[in-house]
Recover the amino acids of this structure.
């Protein structure tokens, strides 16, 4: 059995709870700026999250929830322009410090670095969003702690397809049995599973808590702190108070049959 070498972190919903109060209002600001009366309320956005990728999500919205909208001839160009505008509004929110890191993220990242574990980001969002989120959450230059930022359009097909995880492992010359993935959603979990990763921790959030996480090694509501313990809903037998490197190594050994 290979040693645990690397932690592969999802971003949205995992490093920070970005969707409800970050991406969603940024989409709505972009629609308003384009003179569109589209409004993605919390309930509708929860349904739209079934599709990963902002551009793909807009397309899904038009195809399923707003069929009557008269699409321009260059639909892809129209969507790409809306998405660029949305990213601008989202980055503004990040830069105003409106989206803090989730409980235990900073602690675990520091622990992992001190334990010489290699780190990567594996996300569907854009690399710009990742950079700004990390700089605001962990400080300027903090993205350097990640060997690889596997983000957005670097692959043609987004989560739950395995492509983004396969790309990250290829960049790092790692095998699935050397990696542990930390995700928040069913789509993210299945992207990692499809990439043959078996060590899988899910930290659920408001939008994903009722999704199906069969195949995960551990499901908790946060990575947690000593003063902010996590609550576990599936996975390793003993009660888990916080997710630390020792636990991740145990999860990895169990997942690969040690
Ligand atoms: C979550 C996503 C992203 C965000 C929106 O990514 O699916 O599309 O919802 O960001 P992950 P963009 O959980 O993989 O980090 O508009 O930049 O896609
Ligand atoms: Mg996510």
């Amino acid at each position: 059995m290979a040693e645990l070498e690397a932690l592969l972190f999802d971003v949205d919903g995992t490093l920070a709870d970005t969707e409800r109060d970050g991406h969603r209002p940024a989409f709505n600001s972009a629609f308003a700026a384009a003179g569109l009366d589209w409004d993605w309320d919390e309930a509708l956005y929860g349904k739209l999250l079934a599709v990963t990728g902002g551009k793909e999500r807009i397309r899904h919205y038009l195809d399923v929830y707003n069929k009557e909208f008269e699409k321009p001839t260059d639909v892809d160009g129209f969507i790409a322009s809306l998405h660029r505008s949305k990213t601008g509004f989202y980055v503004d929110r990040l830069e105003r410090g409106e989206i803090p890191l989730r409980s235990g993220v900073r602690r675990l990242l520091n622990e992992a670095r001190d334990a010489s574990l290699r780190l990567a980001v594996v996300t569907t969002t854009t690399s710009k969003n990742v950079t700004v989120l990390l700089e605001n959450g962990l400080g300027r230059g903090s993205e350097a702690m990640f060997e690889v930022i596997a983000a957005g359009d670097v692959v043609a097909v987004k989560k739950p397809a395995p492509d983004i995880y396969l790309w990250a492992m290829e960049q790092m010359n790692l095998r699935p049995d050397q990696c542990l993935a930390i995700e928040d959603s069913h789509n993210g979990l299945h992207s990692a599973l499809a990439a043959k990763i078996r060590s899988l921790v899910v930290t659920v959030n408001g939008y994903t808590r009722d999704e199906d996480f069969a195949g995960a090694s551990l499901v908790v509501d946060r990575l947690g702190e000593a003063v902010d313990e996590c609550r576990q809903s599936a996975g390793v037998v003993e009660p888990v108070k916080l997710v630390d490197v020792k636990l991740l190594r145990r999860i990895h050994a169990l997942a690969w049959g040690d």
